[in-house]
Design goal:
Helix content of chain B: 40-55%
CATH architecture of the largest domain in chain B: Sandwich
Strand content of chain A: under 5%
Oligomer: heterodimer
Largest sheet of chain B: 5 strands, mixed
CATH topology of the largest domain in chain B: Immunoglobulin-like
CATH superfamily of the largest domain in chain B: Cupredoxins -  blue copper proteins
Distance between the termini of chain B: 90 Å
Shape of chain B: elongated
Number of helices of chain B: 13
CATH class of the largest domain in chain B: Mainly Beta
Radius of gyration of chain A: 23 Å
Distance between the termini of chain A: 10 Å
Structural class of chain A: mainly alpha
Largest sheet of chain A: none
Order of helices and strands of chain B: HHHHEEEHEEEEEEEHHHHHHHH
Number of strands of chain B: 10
Radius of gyration of chain B: 29 Å
Strand content of chain B: 15-25%
Helix content of chain A: 55-70%
Structural class of chain B: alpha+beta
Largest interface: A-B, 110 and 107 residues
Order of helices and strands of chain A: HHHHHHHHHHHHHHHHHH
Shape of chain A: globular
């Protein structure tokens, strides 16, 4: 690794500029990564506050705190903000920081576009959130915005919603082009595709999924725009259109989208488990193949979200079988992680705690996913809290735990300071316990018959909703601790070494902590 | 540092919050699991659900068992030196093929049940179910019976002003009635946005989609009252349009059918009656409570930006013809639907009269009232 040391000698060229312009005009992948992560955290808090409005209303039967119209606006914005504002930008932020450092590149391939793809995002969310103050209120048709509720019957703010989705889509497409070009062209000499770190692999696959499906989403919202303002009838039955077409288009985007939100989590988890097990990851090749198969399968399972729209038997059977197949590569990944831990020498620092919780709770989300794939049973589960429990298990202790694991894992590298281990573990245990109190009972109320997107419910669901609300407020409060821990680490702390962890593997750990503003200006050599 | 907390404490830390969840008073079985329902299909679906559930539990125990063993036995303290293996093709093949076989075994009964559900959709009785914002319409195609089914729970219960009843949010003014042992086919569609008709006890959930007719069938052998819900977000009162089905004996069903027909005849007679303003206003208030307050609100103010006000509206005050037309035809592209098929001539006249007189409208407008004959007149083919 002598080449690495050489690259350090060149970083006296220039450091970052000072003041606000550093952040506005930056083309540095580390700065842009930081911007993405802060935006994501801000959105996480806003979307979380909306979730707490929802949970507060559901604390007891009857309407107490908000009106049903506002409740619908909250559940719509909560979903949109969390998907497009919290989870996706967090992964892009991690990619910005880590991909160049993991492949030995000096920066992202297209740094100016990188700046653009970040800086249009805050405007997208300002446009989306401003709809709360418009006449008729914010979008109120769910994050899945099924027509015609989102077209003919939508509040006027739907046009702003469409505009913001277009901006988010453009940002995602630019971001993923950047990731692909960087990975394909800027790997250090000797780093073949099958030697790439798994986080890089997971992002390469994710980026291709994004490029494939974001235009589909853009198409769907454009068709809505035409229906609303230009007299077309794509989704309007009265004009000869087809409301079910909307759902097919939406879920053709939507299903790959849910894997976009989980694949990078697989990459992060793989790194953390091998590091803290002090043992090389088991089955690297099968991990790559599993992720690739999951990505390919994600394009042929979309209609499992639509088992109740009245599809023909052949379609119902096909989508059931295809969906069940996904359990095979997903199972392979879980088995590989566990076999990596097997006969390892495991220590339980905060990133590892989050990663283990990820494996267990994501698997529980996978089990409920398998149950949902069984079409006849889905006739009972569909659109109940069972579904809400399922996707929150894969998204909260799934994606979000993996993101937090990644932050704890890499923040010593980014800042040069160790985070406070004791507080980190406290944060983990509070989050772990409260996330289960929040979402596990939702399986039960769902099975017992409580539909999702209900501001009020029958009396038999009262007890578990109360429990769930208590859990949600605990979870929300725990995340303030996370903010505190991150800020504390930024201010100072025990100095981190270059390797940070005892058994760290990969190019990023050859750089000092914090890394210089420009790294790998001379590419390292990988054997 | 966490190692100051002993291991047993660590476990109690995790599980104590869950202990109260196991109390029998809270965790009655029917409160936390799917209903078995009352039809052959719903029982099959329940069995499938329990089968896949136990398959997942067993896999979970094995997988997490190995994991927890490893977390314990291969911790840094107990196993300071890690092994170095990182590949085993045989193992990889086994854990690809075994899950695949389990899935095939799962797919067989699931596909069978699905094919049973799709088999033979002809019905002895055909009922068209139409979703509206926010109520259900039921049309008995053989018997020419047609009625709307609205939430019966009082808004005062919903807004916590009065105590909630046993069937809070699960009761309607007029349930669907079907006979036991007959094959009933539901033809499900919608008038405005997408709704979804869910009756858990029959394991039927079908989306009601404008422009489409979806079918579902059932044979219920056990008389009783069954309660379901709308399960597709359909706007603000999505939670307030339940489904109630009453299953009765064959004789009771016949009697119900003839009563419904007689009721329709009495309605037609009322149209001929000479109504006083007070009679119309009183009747109209009832119709308004049932059909209009969801959007236009009790005070007639509507909701700014979404639902226009009726109080002080120029159209309501001064344009009787337009007033009738809007109720009869609806307003294209808005939530205002046509009430021509929902309200009788009497109710239509009564509710228009009510809105023209209520909330001080009587003093501000021309105070003209609408009588049932006006509606009959409107319905006549125009020359």
């Amino acid at each position: 690794m002598s080449a690495v040391i050489e690259s350090h000698e060149q970083d006296h060229h220039h450091g970052p500029p000072k003041g606000i312009t550093r952040w506005l005009f930056t083309t540095n992948h580390k700065d842009i990564g930081t911007l993405y992560l802060w935006l994501s955290f801000a959105m996480f808090l806003i979307g979380g506050a909306m979730a707490l409005v929802i949970r507060a209303e559901l604390f007891a039967p009857g309407m107490q705190i908000v009106e049903p119209e506002f409740y619908n606006q909250m559940l719509t914005l909560h979903g949109l903000i969390m998907v497009f504002g919290a989870v996706m930008p967090a992964f892009v932020g991690l990619a910005n920081w880590q991909v160049p450092m993991q492949v030995g590149a000096p920066d992202m391939a297209l740094p100016r576009m990188n700046n653009l793809s970040f800086w249009i995002l805050p405007f997208a969310f300002i446009v989306l959130l401003s709809s709360l103050f418009m006449e008729g209120g914010a979008p109120n048709f769910g994050w899945t915005f099924y027509a015609p509720l989102s077209t003919t019957y939508a509040p006027p703010s739907v046009t702003f919603f469409i505009f913001s989705i277009h901006i988010m889509g453009a940002s995602s497409i630019m971001g993923s082009i950047n990731v692909i070009v960087t990975i394909m062209n800027m790997r250090a000499p000797g780093m073949t595709l099958m030697k790439m770190p798994l986080f890089v692999w997971s992002w390469l696959i994710t980026a291709y999924l994004l490029i494939a499906v974001m235009p589909v989403l853009a198409g769907a919202v454009t068709m809505m725009l035409m229906d609303i303002h230009f007299g077309t009838s794509f989704f309007n039955a009265a004009g000869g259109g087809d409301p079910v077409l909307f759902q097919h288009i939406f879920w053709f985007f939507g299903h790959p989208e849910v894997y976009i939100m989980i694949l990078p989590a697989f990459g992060i988890t793989s790194h953390i488990i091998e590091t803290f097990s002090r043992k090389q990851l088991f089955g690297y090749t099968s991990m790559v193949w599993a992720m690739t198969s999951i990505a390919i399968l994600s394009f042929v399972v979309w209609a499992h979200h639509m088992f109740t729209v009245g599809m023909p038997l052949a379609a119902e059977l096909f989508f059931m079988w295809a969906t069940m197949l996904i359990a095979v590569p997903t199972g392979v990944k879980v088995f590989n992680w566990i076999t990596t831990m097997f006969k390892g020498s495991i220590s339980y620092e905060t990133p590892m705690l989050f990663a283990i919780a990820f494996v267990v709770l994501f698997t529980i989300g996978g089990f409920s996913g398998l149950m949902l794939a069984i079409t006849p049973a889905d006739f009972q589960y569909h659109d109940t809290y069972f579904v809400v429990a399922h996707f929150h298990y894969v998204l909260v202790p799934g994606s979000i735990f993996a993101i937090m694991a990644g932050v704890y894992f890499w923040i010593p590298k980014w800042t040069g300071n160790m985070y406070d281990e004791r507080l980190g573990r406290l944060h983990f245990w509070l989050s772990f316990i409260s996330v289960n109190i929040t979402f596990f009972p939702q399986h039960w109320v769902g099975l017992a018959g409580m539909p999702r997107r209900y501001p009020d419910y029958a009396l038999q669901f009262a007890d578990w909703n109360m429990v769930s609300t208590v859990g949600a407020f605990m979870f929300g409060a725990s995340q303030i601790l996370f903010l505190f821990i991150v800020l504390k680490t930024l201010m100072g702390g025990k100095k981190a070494t270059a390797e940070v962890w005892e058994s760290s593997r990969g190019l990023e750990w050859t750089l000092e902590s914090p890394p210089p503003y420009h790294t790998f200006t001379t590419p390292p050599k990988v054997n | 540092m966490l190692n100051r907390i002993s291991r047993s404490n660590k476990f109690s830390l995790i599980f104590t919050p869950f202990l109260f969840l196991t109390q029998p008073t809270l965790a009655a079985w029917y409160d936390i699991n799917m209903t078995k329902g009352v039809t052959t299909v719903s029982n099959e679906v329940f069995d499938l659900h329990m089968l896949i559930f136990w398959v997942c539990v067993v896999i979970g125990i094995v997988v997490f068992g190995v994991m927890f063993y490893s977390m314990f036995a291969h911790s840094k303290k107990r196993n300071p030196n890690s092994a170095t293996f990182h590949e085993n093709t045989k193992l990889e093949i086994v854990w690809t093929i075994v899950p695949f076989l389990i899935l095939v075994l799962m797919a067989i009964p699931a596909s069978n049940t699905l094919m049973n559900i799709y088999k033979d959709v002809e019905g002895d009785i055909n009922i068209q179910v139409v979703g509206y914002q926010w109520k259900w319409q039921y049309k008995y195609l053989e018997d020419d019976i047609d009625f709307f089914s609205n939430l019966k729970t009082d808004w005062d219960e919903i807004y916590n002003k009065t105590p909630k009843g046993e069937f809070y949010l699960q009761e309607v003014d007029e349930p669907v009635v079907i006979p036991v042992g007959k094959k009933v086919r539901f033809l499900i569609t919608a008038n405005d946005v997408i709704h979804s008709w869910w009756m858990p006890d029959f394991a039927i959930k079908q989306d009601a989609i404008p422009g489409f007719i979806n079918t579902a069938w059932t044979v219920v052998d056990k008389p009783g009252t069954y309660r379901g819900k709308c399960t597709e977000l359909c706007g603000k009162n999505h939670a307030f349009m339940p489904v109630v089905v009453r299953v009765v004996s064959d004789e009771d069903y016949k009697e119900w059918v003839s009563n419904k027909k007689a009721e329709a005849y009495r309605m037609a007679e009322l149209t001929e009656k000479n109504w006083t303003v007070e009679e119309l206003e009183t009747r109209g208030e009832g119709v308004y409570q049932k059909n209009c307050i969801a959007c236009h609100q009790t005070n007639g103010q509507g909701i700014p930006g979404i639902f226009p006000p009726l109080a002080g509206s120029d159209m309501v005050l001064n344009n009787k013809a337009k007033n009738i037309e809007i109720l009869m035809e609806g307003v294209q592209g808005t939530a205002m639907q046509s009430f021509a098929n929902q309200l009788s001539e009497v109710d239509m006249a009564a509710v228009i009269t009510y809105t023209r007189l209520a909330w001080g409208n009587a003093d501000d407008g021309n105070g003209e009232i609408v009588v049932p004959k006006d509606i009959v007149e409107y319905k006549k083919p125009k020359a």
